[in-house]
Design a protein that fits this description.
This protein has three helices and no strands. It has about 70 residues and is mainly α.
């Protein structure tokens, strides 16, 4: 991976990339589409109750109901 991390910018940048890749791979291991998972979680996390953040972890995550279904 040394050449792949060449443009991380700094040690902190490399750590951030590693964190994101860990989340992506964990989502894959749980049979999730990482793009769908991250899009949903990043959309919801700001308004999600802090005492229920574990619901957004890949092994407990359930997608938000489609707003079009409610209409």
């Amino acid at each position: 991976g040394r050449k792949n991390w060449l443009f991380a910018g700094s040690d902190k940048g490399g750590e951030r990339i590693a964190d994101i890749l860990t989340i992506i791979e964990t989502a894959k291991q749980h049979g999730l589409n990482p793009e769908v998972y991250l899009t949903d979680v990043l959309t919801r996390v700001q308004d999600h109750p802090t005492d229920r953040l574990e619901e957004l972890l890949p092994w407990q995550w359930a997608p938000a109901k489609d707003l079009h279904e409610a209409a």
